Amino acid sequence: MCSTPSNSLNAATSDECAAPPRARTFPILDYDLAATLTSGQVFRWEFQDRCWTGVIGKRWLRLSSEGGSITAETAEPVADWNWLRDYLQTDLDLGAVLETFPDDEPMRAAVDSCRGLRLLRQEPWECLASFILSSTKQIVQIRQIVALLCEQFGEPIPGRPGGPPARAFPSADRLARASESGLRACKMGFRAPYLLATARRVAEGEVDLDRLRELTLETARAELMKLAGVGRKIADCVLLFAYGFPSAFPVDVWVVKAFQGLYFPKRRVKAARLRRFSETHFGPNAGYAQQYLFHYMRTNARRSLFIQ
Q1: Distance CA 272, CA 269 (A)
Q2: Do the Cβ atoms of 223 and 212 come closer than 8 Å?
Q3: CATH class of 6-91
Q4: Whether pLDDT at 144 is above 50
């Protein structure tokens, strides 16, 4: 388990989060819900009353984890829960994925610290828009921007029983009709014109996000990088977190610090060398390995002797 709040956060029990008929319990193995929801791949989950609350699509949810299960509660009854299994990736054989990681000291430390962290499978538009807003921002700031965006432009949906409506993530169509000043009011700064331009291209059908599933990694990346505000790092985040391309490897400041501190200590390594290293060292599930390194660096290794 990670050295983040996950040890205590995962202690939420089904008794404390009583499950009404609109609930479902999923058996899990090797799953750290807290690490997964706080590892920088998604930005709309809040820890409240010993449960996680958030929105997936147009559904408000409350999640709790106890031992070998995750219990999900929705605002309205749900007949088919496959969408949540897919989002949470509960059926994934995590052990098989971890076995493909390189057997080196930094990777072993990351797995030992964060074992149970999963990659979610997000809706492509929300993932793309969220990571356009992530540029040069810390996770807490991204969460604030996304919350403001949803409050201002998101469709009201049934929320916590007895509480106010929740808000869905705004569609590309809705944001395409927004003004740049309206978006800037959500504290996104220079990212506002990027988000607006991309929303308009998606809304007008110039970009078919569903079609990217059918492309190769390289072709899908190239298509995403044609969009305003989307460089290689953001493209790889979307390919990994929304489309499940296992070898997409986002390289940001924390990953660079991981490489420098854990793999190339006391050496200056050029960006091109780091990119080649990321593409060749981490195996067929390089994107999964990256997320372990990213979360490990943020929550643990930055306090170690690796970072000077």
Answers
A1: 8
A2: yes
A3: alpha beta
A4: yes
Quote the mean pLDDT of the chain: 90
- What number of CA atoms fall less than 13 Å from residue 29's CA on the CB side? 6
Q: Are the C-beta atoms of residues 83 and 56 closer than 8 Å to each other?
A: yes
* Domain limits, CATH 1.10.340.30, in the chain: 124-241
Nearest to 193 by CA among 264, 278, 123, 133: 133
CA–CA gap between residue 109 and residue 97 (Å, rounded)? 16
Is the Cα dihedral 291, 292, 293, 297 positive or negative? positive
Q: What pLDDT is stored for residue 108 in this prediction?
A: 96
- Rg over alpha carbons for the chain, rounded to the nearest Å, is 19
pTM of the model: 0.89
Confidence of residue 285 (pLDDT cuts 50, 70, 90): very high
pLDDT (tens digit, 9 = 90+) per residue, 1-33?
Answer: 333 344 434 444 444 454 446 999 999 999 999
CATH for 124-241 is: 1.10.340.30
Residue written as token pair 């921007």:
145
Give the closest residue to 202 by CA, choosing from 190, 212, 187, 215: 212
Residue linked to tokens 């290293």 = 277
